[in-house]
């Protein structure tokens, strides 16, 4: 994995030597300096379609422009890729052959595959391939067919298998151990440090909705949302930008920087994405009310899950043993600790805990009852689960 990280870093360093031509002969009177450049970016477009120049990784190193030439839509849907129905010409799916790789290329040419940007030549050859934030943090409503429908931005791609997809790259042809690690992750899981430290310990892909006023974005609370956006865009997606983190021995520079100026727009869109409410009739109202009383009282959940976002302050982190969590993932991060996860739309994104070890909210409540020695009765656990389902 150090080799993959080194490849990305070398590519970015090479890119830094290429600069756009500038008109150095222009001059202005001293008392009227030129106005600073004002570039604005569309928030939704940035989230959905901006690759930040990561084609340098996905095309030049991983060679996914070659990989997709042999992938059928059926295979793509099977590994969790999604198709944006609103990007499709009316009636096209009625005649499309989902067993033909040429249909995959056609969908790419229409910008219809969620989270993927590709350039397709007139002869149907994919010449460039990149990914966007939407790949892991968008879903569709399956209104046309499974995996095909209207976008649901901010929803975690819980059935996307990033590791399996990455393993298809020819880059791993002579790296069987690394390929096997990637294929072991499974749907809805991703390891954002694997390419830096070589340890395979994936975590659940988290929602990108409900982030407004959430102080710590990651499981281990490295920083605010934009910090993590920059980390992922540059060190994981392969975008061209500047990211320096001495604590993780990361120093990446690229010129031009295609990431930093877009972070405000990206944050604006993410903060506009509200958490989806629980489906009508999905929980027992009376039991949820009793569960709320337990949440604030006997169970003492509100001691950490504070405020409207049900999370703790930016300065509060927890040792793994405090919450009965596997410490391995935290040891690989800057903080070495875990934050209190915001409780929003829990009905929508199982499994739970950073590593997905709990399949249901019943298991979560049972775990905390034991780990914190609360002493809940079975009916109290059930009421607490109903309250969590209502959030």
Describe the protein in words.
The protein is mainly alpha-helical and 391 residues long. Helices cover 34% and strands 8% of the residues. The protein folds into two domains: 2-16 and 39-272, no CATH class; 285-390, Cytochrome c-like domain (Cytochrome Bc1 Complex, Chain D, domain 2). The protein has a two-stranded parallel ribbon with strand order 1-5. It has a two-stranded antiparallel sheet with strand order 2-3. The protein has a two-stranded antiparallel sheet with strand order 4-6. Helix 12 packs across helix 13 and helix 16 packs across helix 17. The protein is globular. The protein starts with a helix and ends with a helix. Mean pLDDT is 90; it is low at 1-32.
Question: Which properties best describe this structure?
Answer:
single chain, about 400 residues, mainly alpha, Cytochrome Bc1 Complex, Chain D, domain 2, 2 domains, two-stranded parallel sheet, two-stranded antiparallel ribbon, about 35% helix
Helical percentage = 25-40%
Biggest sheet overview: 2 strands, parallel
Number of strands: 10
Mean of pLDDT:
90
Shape: globular
**Residue ranges: pLDDT <50 for 5 or more in a row?**
1-32
Order of helices and strands: HHHHHEHHEEHEEEHHEHEHEEHHHHH
* Proportion of residues in β-strands: 5-15%
Structural class: mainly alpha
């Amino acid at each position: 994995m150090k080799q993959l990280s080194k490849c990305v870093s070398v590519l970015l360093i090479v890119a830094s030597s290429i600069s756009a031509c500038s008109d150095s002969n222009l001059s202005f009177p001293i008392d009227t300096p030129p106005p600073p450049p004002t570039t604005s970016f569309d928030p939704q477009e940035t989230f959905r379609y901006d690759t930040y120049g990561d084609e340098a990784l996905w095309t030049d190193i991983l060679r996914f422009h070659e990989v997709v030439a042999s992938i059928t839509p059926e295979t793509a849907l099977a590994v969790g890729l999604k198709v944006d129905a609103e990007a499709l010409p009316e009636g096209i799916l009625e005649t499309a052959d989902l067993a033909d790789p040429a249909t995959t290329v056609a969908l790419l040419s229409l910008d219809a595959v969620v989270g993927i940007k590709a350039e397709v030549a007139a002869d149907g050859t994919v010449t460039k391939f990149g990914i966007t934030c939407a790949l892991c943090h968008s879903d569709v409503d399956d209104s046309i067919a499974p995996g095909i429908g209207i976008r649901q931005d901010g929803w975690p791609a819980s059935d996307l298998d990033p590791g399996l997809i990455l393993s298809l790259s020819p880059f791993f042809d002579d790296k069987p151990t690394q390929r096997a690690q990637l294929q072991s992750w499974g749907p809805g899981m991703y390891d954002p440090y694997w390419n830096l430290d070589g340890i395979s310990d994936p975590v659940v892909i988290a929602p990108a909705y409900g982030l407004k006023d959430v102080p710590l974005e990651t499981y281990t609370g490295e920083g605010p949302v934009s910090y993590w956006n920059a980390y992922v865009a540059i060190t994981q997606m392969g975008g061209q930008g500047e990211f320096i983190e001495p604590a993780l021995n990361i120093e990446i520079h690229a010129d031009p920087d295609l990431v930093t100026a877009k972070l405000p727009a990206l944050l604006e869109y993410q903060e506009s994405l509200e958490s989806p409410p629980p489906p009508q009739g999905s929980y027992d109202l009376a039991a949820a009310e009793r569960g709320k009383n337990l949440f604030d009282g006997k169970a003492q959940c509100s001691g950490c899950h504070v405020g409207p976002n049900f999370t703790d302050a930016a300065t509060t982190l927890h040792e793994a043993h405090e919450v009965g969590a596997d410490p391995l993932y935290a040891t690989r991060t800057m903080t070495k600790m875990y934050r209190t996860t915001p409780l929003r739309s829990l009905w929508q994104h199982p499994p739970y805990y950073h590593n997905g070890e709990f399949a249901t909210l019943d298991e979560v409540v049972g775990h905390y009852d034991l780990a914190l020695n609360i002493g809940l009765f079975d009916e109290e656990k059930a009421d607490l689960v109903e309250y969590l389902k209502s959030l």
